[in-house]
Design brief:
Radius of gyration: 43 Å
Low-confidence stretches: 17-44, 111-122
Distance between the termini: 151 Å
Mean pLDDT: 80
Shape: elongated
Number of domains: 3
CATH architecture of the largest domain: 6 Propeller
CATH class of the largest domain: Mainly Beta
Number of helices: 2
Number of strands: 34
CATH superfamily of the largest domain: TolB, C-terminal domain
Largest sheet: 7 strands, antiparallel
Strand order of the largest sheet: 22-23-24-25-26-29-30
């Protein structure tokens, strides 16, 4: 009986036991599903952000101010903390009276119109032929492949620039720059260049060019070119035509056909002598920076041109006696042509300071012969009508106040410099310490 009751109870409890087992299985399955879900959620939470961030920068903030000689810098910052930097370009110079108010340097094209004033600082040189210039009491000149400078009051001879090959000519000084022509053995080794008066920043401006004259006026280089072998196919383009180019380089421009010579300038106009293919000689002028020519004088065999006292002075060959030159003057517009005197010449050098004209030759005597004792550098006083012999030893160079001689010894080294001051008649010898 007891066994029968136990069997009945077991039958009643069996469905409950089965339900409990199935629930336990479900719990295990649910636990596995929950764990997998949590793991997936965890993986989702730590995954990196894959969308691009667009920076949102602040306004630019200057870190270093730019000047006329040095670049500056500035920075801006994003909300995320990222910084962006960039440079600020150098500023333009701010010139007052040709001096920059920021860096205190002189304008590189500083120009003072001093041709007639007798001051030492003038436009380039007095003419396109000279190999020396005077500025701020310094004499600049070339010898062989080197440019030198020396103080007019004496001192050491300073080497400014030495060319690797060739010989240097046509030295011009304007502002802080020396402009010159270097002649090489072949056309491709000939060039026009510039270098600062302290010897820095050498730069070639025109290459493969051969020149006879060069004159720098403000920011333009005028020069007369010809083939190195002196052979040409086109007379007007190749035989001494006149060109100009910026002092900063660029493409040269032909402004007059050949043959041009005797360049002088007052800063407003360029004056020169032009000989045509049929030997017709004219004195012309062209406005500074322009190319329009005006003929000032013609039908005279002009050999040299000088500019002083707001006048043009001409040495021309006499029609009736080849040994004489006629000294004449005219206004810079070509009017008032005036014959001044005749002189017996051996060369065509001409320089005028005030009322005195200088040339190489001798003083005429009754128009029939010359005194050999007065042969050399002659001074003619246009007020007193008298000649005076200055020197016969050396070939002079022109500068604003008078003349100077570069005297070399037998070894070819510069021995001393002699300066003749026109106003006082003083001869000053510069020796080197």
């Amino acid at each position: 009986m007891k066994k029968f009751l136990f069997f009945i109870v077991l039958l009643l409890l069996l469905p409950c036991l089965l339900i409990s087992c199935e629930g336990a299985g479900d719990n295990e399955n649910n636990a596995s599903i929950s764990t997998a879900t949590a793991t997936t959620q965890a993986k989702t939470e730590v995954a990196p952000i894959t969308t691009l961030h667009s920076h949102s920068y602040s306004e630019w903030v200057t870190v270093v101010e730019a000047t006329c000689v040095k670049e500056g810098s500035r920075v801006r910052v994003c909300l995320c903390g990222h910084k962006e930097k960039e440079s600020i370009k150098t500023l333009s110079h701010s010139y007052i009276d040709a001096v920059c108010m920021m860096c205190h340097q002189k304008h590189p094209n500083f120009f003072e119109r001093d041709y007639a004033s007798g001051k030492a600082n003038f436009v380039g040189t007095l003419d396109g032929m000279t190999a020396c210039a005077v500025q701020d009491k310094y004499i600049y000149f070339s010898h062989e492949n080197t440019i030198y400078k020396v103080n007019m009051n004496g001192g050491d001879l300073e080497e400014v620039h030495r060319a690797l090959v060739g010989s240097i000519h046509n030295v011009n000084v304007v502002g802080d720059w020396i402009y010159f022509f270097c002649e090489g053995s072949t056309q491709d080794k000939c060039y026009i260049a510039k270098v600062r008066t302290d010897g820095e920043q050498f730069e070639k401006l025109v290459v493969s060019v051969n020149i006879s004259e060069m004159l720098v006026v403000k920011d333009i280089i005028y020069y007369v070119s010809f083939p190195l072998d002196r052979k040409y196919k086109n007379y007007s383009k190749e035989w001494f035509p006149l060109y100009n180019i910026s002092i900063n380089g660029g493409m040269p421009t032909q402004i007059h056909d050949g043959a041009v010579s005797d360049l002088v300038s007052d800063g407003e106009y360029l004056y020169y002598v032009h000989t045509t293919y049929d030997d017709k000689i004219t004195v012309c002028r062209t406005p500074y920076g322009g190319s329009q020519k005006k003929v000032l004088h013609e039908n005279t065999d002009v050999r040299n041109l000088a500019l002083a006292n707001s006048k043009l002075y001409l040495l021309s060959r006499d029609k009736f006696n080849d040994h004489f030159l006629n000294l004449a003057s005219m206004k810079t517009n070509g009017s008032d042509y005036t014959m001044i005197t005749q002189c017996w010449f051996s060369d065509t050098f001409l320089h005028v300071v005030g009322n005195k004209a200088y040339y190489l030759g001798s003083a005429p005597e009754d128009g029939t012969y010359y005194d050999p004792d007065e042969h050399g550098v002659m001074e003619y006083n246009m007020n007193t009508k008298k000649f005076k012999s200055i020197s016969w030893d050396y070939h002079p160079k022109a500068f604003g106040e008078g003349l100077l001689w570069l005297v070399y010894n037998k070894e070819g080294d510069l021995a001393w410099i002699t300066i003749y001051y026109s106003k006082t008649g003083e001869l000053k010898k510069i020796e080197f310490s």
